[in-house]
């Protein structure tokens, strides 16, 4: 498990850059943390690092947002906070996204862990006192 400490939300740009470099070759990122910990913010920074110029926002109601990176490849952003049944994830055709070889950033991944590919990057954001965030990340392989 790798750990980075961010003293403010603005440090998440550096965090995103570091994680993408450390996990080069991996495209599925499961981002976990409490409500308000910074999941969407770090995904914004991941997208920025990948060359996405569009506005990145949480797809809470749509479940998925699609952006284009600097190479004009899709980048997928999922938010599974509001799913009630796993069937909702089947209905959006998750396999086409998770097995596409394009970047996928998943908020609230604990709700769909059994659907994630055999290998993915797990990122846990913990908010501490004074807005400090401890970000732990590692490659998970089943």
Descriptive report:
The chain is an alpha/beta fold. The protein has one domain (2-134): P-loop containing nucleotide triphosphate hydrolases (Rossmann fold), CATH 3.40.50. The chain has four helices and seven strands. It has helices spanning 12-22, 39-49, 87-91, 94-98; strands spanning 2-6, 28-33, 64-68, 74-79, 103-107, 119-127, 133-141. Strands 1-7-6-2-5-4-3 form a seven-stranded mixed beta sheet, covered by helices on one side. A hairpin with a 5-residue loop joins strand 6 and strand 7. Helix 1 (12-22) crosses helix 2 (39-49).
Q: What is the helix tally?
A: 4
Tell me the series of helices and strands, N- to C-terminal.
EHEHEEHHEEE
Given as residue ranges, the uncertain stretches (5+ residues, pLDDT < 50) are: none
**What is the count of structural domains?**
1
- Gross geometry: globular
Question: What do the pLDDT scores average to?
Answer: 93
What's the short version?
With 142 residues, this protein is an alpha/beta fold. It has helices at residues 12-22, 39-49, 87-91, 94-98, and strands spanning 2-6, 28-33, 64-68, 74-79, 103-107, 119-127, 133-141. Helix content is 23%, strand content 32%.
